[in-house]
Every structure is written in C-alpha cells, then in structure tokens.
Amino acid sequence: MRYLTIPAAFLATVSFQFDAAHATELEVTHWWTSGGEAAAVAEFAKAFDATGNQWVDGAIAGSGDTARPIMVSRITGGDPMGATQFNHGRQAEELVEAGLMRDLTELAEQEGWRDVVNPPSLLEGCTLDGKIYCVPVNIHSWEWLWLSNQAFADAGIPVPANWDEFVAAAPALEAAGKTPLAVGKQGWQEAGIFNVLMLAIAGPDVFVGVYGDKNVDVAAGDDIARVMKATDDARRMAASSNVQNWNEATNLVITGAAGGQIMGDWAQGEFQVAGQVAGEDYTCLPGAGLNQYISTGGDAFYFPTLDDPAASEAQEVLASVMLSPAAQVAFNLKKGSLPVRGDVDLATANDCMQKGLAILGEGNVVPSTNELITPDTNSQLNDLMTEFFSDMGITVEDAQERFVEIIAAAE
Asked: What is this structure's pTM?
C-alpha cells in the first residue's frame, strides 16, 4: 500500500496542488446538518477540494443514533463510502475487528500524529492492537449549561452562576412565560443531561467509577441519588419544552424563549450562526458552574477499505487535510469544539472556547461515555432517560434502581 507524504508547508496552508489526473471524488458521510455544523463541515470540504480532489457530501439528517446504523449497514453490505464520521470511542470497534476499516498507522507515523494530538487518549481511542484506524478531528465536551441573558432580563432576575441558582430561578422564568430548560425529546439528549449532572454534582471519581470501573456500589450510592434528584429537577423544568431536535432546543435559548439548555459545545456553533456574542447575548457555564471538568469526547473519521487505488490515495489526502493546522482551526472555530492539535493558535476563540481551552490546559478532563461504555449500554441509558423524562410516575428511586441494573450488565 502506498502512502503520500504531505510536506509540512502544504499542511500549514492546506493549499495542496495535484495533477488533475489524480483528482478523485470521495463520498464523506456524517450527521452534521444543523446551521453551525454545516458551516463547520464546509471548511473540511473546502480544504479537501483545494487538493484537486472533490468532497461529495453524504450528510444524513438526524442524530448520530439515526446515522450510524445506516453507515454501518453500507459498510457491511459492500457499499462503503470514502470516509465516515463516528464518535471517539468504541462505535466502530466491530468494523475494525472485521477488517473493514483501513489501517492508518503508516500515515500517522509519517506525519507525527502522536506528537501533536492532545490529549493522547484521543489517538488511543483510534488504536486497536497497536494500529491506528481513525483521525480524531475535534474535542467535544458535553458539560455545558447555556443560558439566555435575554430570558433572565425579561424575568427580572440575574443570570445564574451555577446549576443550583438555575433551578432556583425556574419559577421566575415560568412566570415570565419562559421554558426554564430547553430539551429535545430524544433519549441521547436526556441521557446527556444526566451524565453532565453526574460529573458536575458527584465529580470525576464517581463518573469514572460508574462508567469506567462499572462499580455497582457507586451507582447505587448516595452520590448518584443526588444526581437523580437533580435530573428530576431537570425533567420538571423541561416539561414545557416541546421540540424534538437539539438545535431546535438551542434556538429556544437563542431567541430568549427558554432560560437555558444543557448541551455539548457544538451548541456554540448555533449561537455563532445566529450572530450572538458569548458573554453578552448568552452565558456558558462549563461543568454547570459546579465542577469545572469536561469530557474529551468528539468526532473521528474512519476510512473503509476500498478496492479503488485512486480512491484509497484520496482517503490518505483527506486524512492529512483533516488533521492539518489550518483545517483544524477553521473547522473547530465554527463547530464550537476544541482542536485535537495542541500546537495551533486559537487567539481568536471566543469566551466560551477560551474557558474550554483553560480547563483542557489544567488537565481537568475525563473520558467520554462513548470511550467508557459500549453502544449497547449507552442505548439502554438513553431508553431509561427517555422514560424518566416522559413519565413523572417513575420515581427517583425507581430510576436509580434501573440504572444500577444497566451498570451491572455493562461490559
């Protein structure tokens, strides 16, 4: 197998020039379809097209839960795309084990990926049996509470500084006709709230103990009981949130119709597209203002094994482009995520991204749930939280008991 060596100078500018005869169309599948996401992915497409190849956009509407089965079905069914998005972690593990994904180790060594990817766990998440199978492209952290400054001004109360103050502000928001907490009616969003509150309220040792160590005693303990009580507060605050998709919930915050939203830093892309300014129009609280830790989840691209030599060569070019300094900055500034390269200049990053960079620099990070639990366990958690949010008859005690059962069965 032949790999291209891309000179560093070209990587820095992402202005590759190849003979037109080598130009190749490459289909790239992903689930980035909101306004902020589309603006970000267009930066990757532009950088790849600058190499003389052509990005063929294979966006799949809906969340990752919708898109991943379609992607997997195509790969296992003999109709692979050129590249496909998955989250950091174990989502593509079985495809790699089946020999359906390309080994990128030689390219990674040529370009020194291990020297620039930070934290190293991101590249470790792409590694199986010592070989690298994906390109991490960003660091997405879930642990953010986004607040509408306008909503709190309308309610005549100050913007909260943490989750506890936010809960206390809910009655005033409701009296002003606001939805206190905007949440889309999807299990992954509701489970995300529970996980964010776990890290914010119970702390990193409990978070890793439950999901990393699968410690049933911790899952059944008082710390998780407090987290379940906070999640009960969340579902009550979200009772009037009648939207489906996460970006629709974000729009409620942007327009001042809702007080806040717990959502990953990708929400920041929506604020940016709407022309809002961090610290002026909206407030961001990492760790819900309680415990400033973030998870180092995010997105990575895998490259299915192809029989076409030209397409295989284009895959290598795309992998190089995605990890190049210029593309990393352009993509992540619009996505709201942090770059995986530790050597790029983000002086132009806004207030919220600077907060995330500071937390990352301090080392206050934990692995994401996608890195700690299997997709099956994650689906069970999503199902539990869907029921918990939709049925007020499920008590906090009932929900914790079922959570313990999920952790006891987790691999």
From this structure: 0.80
In a 13 Å sphere around the CA of 232, the CA atoms on its Cβ side amount to 15
Q: Which has the closest alpha carbon to 26: 60, 2, 49, 50?
A: 49
Backbone Cα Rg of the chain: 21
Q: Is 301 helix (H, G, I), strand (E, B) or coil?
A: strand
Q: How many other CB atoms are there within 10 angstroms of residue 132's CB atom?
A: 21
Positive or negative torsion for Cα 308, 313, 315, 318: negative
314-317 contacts at long range (C-beta below 8 A, 24 or more positions apart): 314/24, 314/26, 314/53, 314/82, 315/26, 315/82, 315/83, 315/102, 316/3, 316/4, 316/107, 317/4, 317/6, 317/16, 317/18, 317/48, 317/51, 317/53
Cis ω for the linkage preceding 204 (within 30 of 0): no
Distances in Å between the alpha carbon of 35 and those of 246, 247, 272, 333? 12, 9, 9, 14
Give the three-class secondary structure for 44: helix
H or E segment at 94? helix 93-97
How far does the chain reach from its first CA to its final CA, in angstroms? 36
Residue type, 219: A
Beta bridge partners of 30: 59
**For residue range 310-337, what is the model confidence (pLDDT) as tens digits?**
999 999 999 999 999 999 999 998 988 8
Lowest mean pLDDT across 21-30, 44-53, 66-75: 21-30
> CA nearest 45: which of 63, 59, 64?
59
Closest-CA residue to 204 (of 212, 193, 194): 212
Map residue 280 onto helix, strand or coil: coil
Give the CB-side neighbour count of residue 235, counting CA atoms within 13 A: 25
* Domains of the chain by start residue, with CATH: 8-140+296-341 (3.40.190.10), 144-295+357-409 (3.40.190.10)
